[in-house]
Amino acid sequence: MPKTIIEPFRIKSVEPLRRTTCEQREEFLREAHHNLFLLDAADVLIDLLTDSGTGAMSTHQWAGVMEGDESYAGGKSFYHLKASVQDIFGYKHVVPTHQGRAAERILFSVMCKPGDVVPNNTHFDTTRANVTAVGAEAVDLVIAEGKQPRVKHPFKGNMDVRALEALIDRVGRDKVPLVMLTVTNNSGGGQPVSMENVRQVSAVCRKHGIPFYFDACRFAENAYFIKLRETGYADKSPKEIAQEMFSYGDGCTMSAKKDGMANIGGFVCTNDDRVAQQQKDVLILTEGFPTYGGLAGRDLEAIAIGLQEAVDEDYLEYRIASTTYLGNHISGEGVPIVQPPGGHAVYIDARDFLPHIPLDQFPAVALANELYLEGGIRSVEIGRLMFAGAATMDLVRLAIPRRVYTQSHIDYVVEVILDVWGRRDRIRGLEITYEAPFLRHFTAELRPVGD
Ligand SMILES: Cc1ncc(COP(=O)(O)O)c(C=O)c1O
After folding, report:
1. Are residues 436 and 442 in contact, defined by beta-carbon separation less than 8 angstroms?
2. SS3 (DSSP) at 269
3. Residue 391: pLDDT band by 50, 70, 90 thresholds?
4. What integer pLDDT is reported at residue 406 of this predicted model?
5. What is the CB-side half-sphere exposure of residue 194 using CA atoms within 13 A?
6. I want to staple 100 with a disulfide (CB 3.0 to 4.6 A). Which of 33, 266, 355, 369 is the partner?
7. What sign for the dihedral angle of Cα 289, 291, 296, 302?
8. Rounded to two decimals, what is the model's pTM?
């Protein structure tokens, strides 16, 4: 049996990439004020800014787009979506939304009140913002290993169950309207959560009568990590593993832009009839009728089909192999990364990569800029520019869009990173010349120190 893991698809439609020269990229970067968010996408060769909504759809999904039922109410595409979601997630109510954060807003506005506390392994930034927006507090309880980039652990996304018990004892059960678990843990390096941990968190929730919800964006990648790394799951399919995982919860929020394999969409699920009714009331006010939830019928079709493709074992084998390949090839040459490589992304530790750049000169922004200058690669800083003084790490995230880039694209990315690694001593830090009062990383303007 050949050992090479191939892309389990062939390419039917291609999108040309535009090559640029180093001089052009210097000019583009100057015009973008050294902030990669401000570049035109056309000036980027390999875009690893995010894996969200950037994937390639399959022939089946495109065929589904043509089948989309655009009826305002009761369209067949909604029932297709509902059946596909229930097949994998098993929850009673499925409420479509235009993307993940809309699902979060609806869930938290229905379930939380000011003064409440919502535990999670690590809240994603939109999740945290939506918890905070209703006056509740978002608390991160990931295990200690999950906060240490170099430490290897098979399930660095696990929640610290003792800390969860202690939190519930301290604030009281009535202050905890739900517990969330993010699979995989995006803000914690795309690291998975084990089935054992899911069971333990579920048991704590059951004991206290607290609803347990998943932030399910990358549930299929998490299921595959369980298959690879957890005893007793090697012979189960990713879908069976996902079904078991969700059976321990009461509902979920989902951004279909990740493991929904779609370019837009999301949903919120619950087993609670009363919560579902309230969610639909909010939905009608802000998103649309409950059988389309802010999406076109064709989007519902694409998600219904995409969810089933995301749990395909050949796809997941290639997906995780591709991220691991990138991580291992750069770390094998000494590049410091968050270990082990995550499901959807590789995170470079910029503080270790550029120890000569002080933290207030944004080492991860400097490194991301250099990857663009060297090879036209766009990545994203997750560090001091994004989180200011609250940043505990300065990382460059290389997020891999689903089914978009081939092995040779990844080889090219490895080569570019290693070239920058070879001249790291000469990279300079940056200073801010403009910043917005909040979420400054999107629009900040910077210049190299000493310019
Ligand atoms: C873990 C997690 N939760 C929620 C979201 C929000 O989803 P969306 O971008 O569709 O609003 C994201 C998006 O990146 C995410 O990674």
Report:
1. yes
2. strand
3. confident
4. 95
5. 19
6. 266
7. positive
8. 0.96
Kindly give, in sequence order, each residue whose CB lies less than 8 Å from that of residue 331, ignoring residues fewer than 6 positions away.
337, 339
Instruction: Dump pLDDT digits (tens) for 169-215.
Output: 999 999 999 999 999 998 888 999 999 999 999 999 999 999 999 99
> What is the crossing angle of helices 161-171 and 195-208, to 10°?
20
- Do the bridges between strand 380-382 and strand 395-399 make them parallel or antiparallel, or are there none, so unpaired? antiparallel
Pocket test for ligand 1, best of 101, 105, 221, 347 (most atoms within 8 A of CB): 101
Distance 357 CA to ligand 1 centre (A): 31
Residue pair 222/245 in contact (Cβ under 8 Å)? The answer is yes
E-strand stretches of 22-121: 46-47, 93-97, 117-120
Q: Which residues pair with 62 in a beta bridge?
A: none
For residue 259, give both structure tokens: 């493991």
Distance (angstroms) between ligand 1 centre and the Cα of 111 equals: 19
Interacting residues of 404 by C-beta distance below 8 A, sequence separation 6+: 54, 55, 56
Ligand 1 atom at minimum distance from 266 CA: 10
Q: Please give the Cα distance from 356 to 427 (Å, whole number).
A: 9
pLDDT single digits (tens) 219-258: 999 999 999 999 999 999 999 999 999 999 999 999 999 9
Q: Which of 49, 218, 255, 263 to mutate to test the pocket of ligand 1 (most atoms within 8 A of CB)?
A: 255
User: What are the structure tokens assigned to 86, written together?
Assistant: 């229930």
Helices (H), 209-362: 219-229, 238-247, 273-286, 297-310, 313-331, 350-353
- Cα 377 to ligand 1 centre (Å): 22
**Three-state secondary-structure class, residue 54:** coil
Apex 316 CA angle, 313 and 317, nearest 5: 85
**How many C-beta neighbours within 10 Å does residue 27 have?**
13
Residue 126 Cα to ligand 1 middle (Å): 7
Nearest CA to ligand 1 atom 5: 100
Residue 44's alpha-carbon distances to 49, 143, 158, 196, 348, in angstroms, are 10, 37, 35, 42, 20
